Amino acid sequence: MAGIKQTFVTKLTDVNSTAQEVLGTLRFEGNKVYKYVEFKNTTATVAGAAGSLVGYNAATGYLNNKVVADLTDADAAVFPAGVTLAAVTGTLATSYFIWIQIKGYVVLDTAVTSGAAGSPFYLTTTDKTGAICSAATQAPAGISMNTTTGVSLNCNF
Q1: How far apart are CA 65 and CA 111, in angstroms?
Q2: CB count, 10 Å around CB of 94?
Q3: Please, where are the H alpha helices in the chain?
Q4: If you compute the radius of gyration of the chain from its CA atoms, what whole number of angstroms results?
Q5: Is 70 helix (H, G, I), strand (E, B) or coil?
Q6: Contacts of 84 by beta carbon, 8 Å cutoff, 6+ apart
Q7: What is the pLDDT of residue 117?
Q8: Given CB 3.0 to 4.6 Å as the disulfide criterion, which of 36, 83, 93, 111 pairs with 21?
């Protein structure tokens, strides 16, 4: 397909200290979509495991492809970015360059709380935690597929 990058330097589970791909690059594999981002906490060390929900850094994180696991670094109404694919140490003020999954089925490391399967869920202000949407101001991250950890992500590019 012309115009769409089809080969990549990194594996989906790579965690690097320098960018190996262009930030914001999208990767389509099967029925899933991934995005290459900078993971950097600026207030506290919060690690991410494979399957951790992350949000965009406050104000310009979406525009600059910067994500955080420490949600005190995100906007008050967290804008969900996606899910980490590998363990990330999350050391304060250290940049990690990773792929996150933004669309498709994934198993989270923490169950979505307070609701039934088939409901939209959002990233709460509690680090790496999703809950069933209850207000129009909560940006949906996807649909809860079961009452434990299976979800269908639908985060914005």
Answers
A1: 25
A2: 13
A3: 61-64
A4: 15
A5: coil
A6: 39, 48, 49, 50, 51, 52, 54, 69, 98, 100
A7: 83
A8: 36
